[in-house]
Amino acid sequence: PAQPRDRLRVAVQKSGRLGDPARELLASCGLTWRESRDRLFLYGESLPVDVLLVRDDDIPGLIADGVCDLGVVGRNVLVEHGLEHEAQGRGVRLSEWRQLGWGVCRLDVAIPEDLEWTGPAQLEGLRIATSYPQTLGRWLREQGVDAQPVVLNGSVEIAPRLGQADVVCDLVSTGGTLRANQLRPVTTILESEAVIAGPDHTLEDGRQEIADLLLRRLDGAVQLKEARLLMLRTDRSLVDTVLPLLPVGHEPTVLQVDGRDEVSVQVLVHGSVSWSRLEELKRAGASNLMVLPVEGMLA
Ligand code: ATP
Ligand code: MG
């Protein structure tokens, strides 16, 4: 069993696509830190939370072994690790504690541009280059297709040109890399985004409480980022026409404007408010329309 620890330890990608956003996320929860000399550790100063900086592929294993409690990682890496463990009959199961909505990408099968796509059966007997053999293998079984995975840890997209494989199964966000290699995505086998991964049980030694605090702040920070305050004025007689046109959000607050037959309306909404929405409100009789960002919130 792992040694008792009273500080939460979070694994984050050292560099790469998820490193900076993950640190920003932790900073938005009020975490400040001091970096270790070897740039492996961030010692939390404001909260009992330390950050371990690692390669993303190592994150699920660190959580499974109890070295870290949580990690910020792509679902693609988490799923691949889970299937690998299942295949080996090892019982450590991880789950997604939060979906973060960034680091969005797909694990796609891509074929040479000049090839026609008729469906998964076409892959029968072909060599498929991938860094995700388990996820690909599961999908192939589901499709009842027998193909040959060629496992590569990088530069999967050049494998067909090198004659190492016939097609690829790789991560895609814009498709630019595939296009540059005369490949086109034809089917998606996994939709991915960055997630907070953790064990599928509660943490021990008081670390669950720290994790709860961190996640509560994180949820608040996410809500805050999307929150806008919409303000407007309108004639008292038009309130019933204007209110139904407001974007869905919280209960609007309607205030009487001193000495006038006018009201001021304010409502907290999620996400941005479109120009067309504002124009619609104006046509209905609203004026002084304003959309403001929200700096802080405590219900
Ligand atoms: P490391 O050195 O930590 O192993 P890496 O090269 O494996 O880094 P990155 O390329 O930094 O990993 O990607 C990290 C994660 O970013 C991916 O696992 C995936 O979840 C996500 N991601 C988002 N878009 C893309 C994309 N277009 N290509 C690859 N990964 C993407
Ligand atoms: Mg990696």
Largest sheet: 7 strands, mixed
Helix percent reads 25-40%
Note the gap between the termini: 41 Å
Q: Write down the overall geometry.
A: flat
Count of spatially separate domains: 3
Integer average pLDDT: 94
Low-confidence segments, given as residue ranges, are none
Hetero groups: adenosine-5'-triphosphate, magnesium ion
Rg for CA atoms: 25 Å
The CATH topology of the largest domain comes to D-Maltodextrin-Binding Protein, domain 2
Instruction: Please list the strands of the largest sheet in the order they lie side by side.
Output: 2-3-4-1-5-12-6
Question: What amount of the residues lies in strands?
Answer: 25-35%
In short:
With 299 residues, this protein is α+β, with helices and mostly antiparallel strands. It has helices at residues 19-28, 59-64, 75-87, 133-143, 159-162, 176-180, 207-226, 239-242, 275-283; strands at residues 8-13, 33-35, 41-44, 49-54, 70-74, 94-99, 105-112, 127-130, 148-151, 167-172, 183-192, 194-199, 227-235, 253-256, 262-270, 287-293.
